[in-house]
Design a protein that fits this description.
This protein is mainly alpha-helical. It is built from 20 helices and no strands. The protein has a domain of 110 residues.
């Protein structure tokens, strides 16, 4: 008898969900926060298992669930399994935090279920030759923009590194202000935009790897500064791009070499990141073993659980204004006080770093809550960060958190579907969002797709597609005159 391993795995996944449901029922009866924590951990495990049933469309869900655990759940989990209790905060704080994460995970899961089974019945009718010519033109133009703007991207990061070498990490975070001309900033933003458009044209593996390698290399400098997130996010971005391309070109993009790099490189990178936790503060790791350093790294990433806890405790102390919205704050501020707002008479913020102005007058949750909790330490460059969970809950309550999480789950599936279709623009947008998406559990909800509302993004999109169109027409004209078909 031949076992159907897909069916076996599906049964294991189903069994995991059944255990989760029983734990949830047990919590209703015993009201124990430990039971609730175990229910949450089992829900994450079940959700991760489910992703592998249809990993082609659920890779974004998978990594997002992992980051939710890493940033929002790992700390109380390690506390419980290491010490047998969780008592940093009161029980009602833990209860709220666990329930908020559960609500979001359920919403994201439901969102995925709503659309993952639907297939696009509309068949794409594309004239292959015409489409290929235009894609080739977009590829050449976007690569040219990437290569032109890349030096400006590097210069701005190097400027930060030079400043950081002369001050502490927290002084850098509180006081750094670029002295370079503003046009260098504008040009540097084109790197990511042009890269996403270039990769959306689906160039071959060698050319894609070179561009991704340049992007990751630039973010190594951020690692030297002490800022880990851009580097890690660039690696995750590269992996997902390889994964997407491998689904339509099996074995070409992810072979034995890539799998070995993934399996060996991931724990090594986690150890290096764990070491950097201490190095950027000028401390050593003492006599920690590798396993202790690994657990310590995971534990320290879980500081964002404190955002949920402090958000619950200090929510009533947040600045009260006639209109306040944390969830879509970056977009609203861009329209009212950013580059777009300035065109219509808006006044920009004086400071881009930790300041009383951002702490008291902005709608940036991370700045508002960090100042309330830390006061002078916040002004010195420290912060507790933010989380999409608290932004949504503060603005729209648990119901809003649930509904917006459903929309997130739907979006994740549509993003994956766009990667398997021929359209360049939608795939470009997907790649742009993926650049910052996985920082959302410890950052702003809008940060990952904020660039879609900026003049810079649409400006460079229009330029690239317009120039590509001109080149395509010229090539077509030459080909037609030669009588080629």
């Amino acid at each position: 008898m031949i076992l159907d391993w897909k069916r076996v795995y599906y049964i294991i996944t189903l069994f995991s969900y059944v255990i989760t449901i029983f734990l949830g029922i047990a919590y209703i009866y015993n009201n124990s926060i430990i039971t609730l924590l175990i229910t949450l951990v089992m829900l994450i495990i079940s959700s991760i298992l489910y992703c592998f049933n249809n990993i082609k469309y659920y890779i974004i869900h998978l990594i997002f669930y992992i980051t939710i655990f890493l940033f929002l759940v790992s700390r109380p989990t390690i506390d419980y399994f290491k010490y047998g209790l969780i008592n940093t905060y009161q029980e009602d704080v833990y209860r709220f935090s666990f329930l908020a994460v559960i609500v979001s995970i359920i919403g994201i899961t439901i969102g995925g279920l709503l659309v993952s089974k639907r297939e696009n019945k509309l068949k794409e009718e594309i004239k292959a030759l015409k489409n290929k010519r235009f894609i080739d033109s977009v590829r050449k133009v976007s690569l040219s923009v990437f290569l032109f703007s890349y030096p400006f991207y590097l210069v701005r990061i190097i400027e930060r590194l030079v400043y950081r070498l002369n001050v502490s990490y927290y002084e850098y975070y509180a006081d750094f202000k670029s002295e370079l001309p503003y046009f260098t900033y504008t040009l540097s933003t084109f790197v990511v935009y042009a890269m996403c458009i270039y990769l959306a044209t689906k160039p071959n593996k060698r050319h894609s790897t070179i561009v991704l390698g340049m992007f990751v290399t630039g973010n190594v400098i951020n690692l030297l500064i002490g800022t880990r997130n851009p580097f890690v996010l660039s690696l995750i971005f590269s992996f997902i791009y390889y994964f997407m391309r491998n689904q339509t070109e099996k074995g070409v993009w992810i072979g034995v070499k890539e799998k070995a790099m993934l399996y060996l490189g991931t724990p090594i990178m986690m150890l290096v990141m764990g070491f950097l936790n201490y190095a950027r503060d000028g401390e050593g790791i003492g006599n920690m073993s590798l396993s202790e350093l690994l657990i310590d790294f995971v534990y320290k990433q879980g500081t964002s659980f404190g955002v949920l806890a402090r958000g619950y405790l200090y929510g009533s102390n947040l600045p009260v204004r006639e209109f306040r919205n944390y969830t879509f704050s970056p977009i609203i501020e861009y329209i009212t006080r950013g580059n777009l707002g300035i065109l219509f008479g808006g006044t920009p913020f004086v400071s881009a770093n930790n300041s009383l102005e951002l702490a008291l007058t902005s709608d940036r949750y991370a700045h508002n809550i960090s100042y309330i909790v830390l006061r002078q330490d916040y002004l010195a460059g420290h912060g507790i960060g933010g989380s999409y969970v608290m932004e949504m809950y503060t603005d729209y309550s648990m119901i809003g958190l649930f509904l917006l999480s459903i929309i997130m789950g739907i979006s994740f599936i549509f993003m994956m579907k766009s990667s398997y279709q021929s359209g360049i623009l939608f795939f470009s947008i997907t790649l742009l969002i993926l650049n910052n998406l996985f920082f959302m559990p410890r950052g702003s909800f809008t940060e990952s797709f904020f660039n879609l509302f900026t003049l810079q993004f649409w400006g460079i999109v229009i330029v690239i597609f317009f120039v590509a169109g001109l080149i395509n027409r010229k090539v077509k004209h030459v080909v037609d005159n030669k009588g080629d078909v």
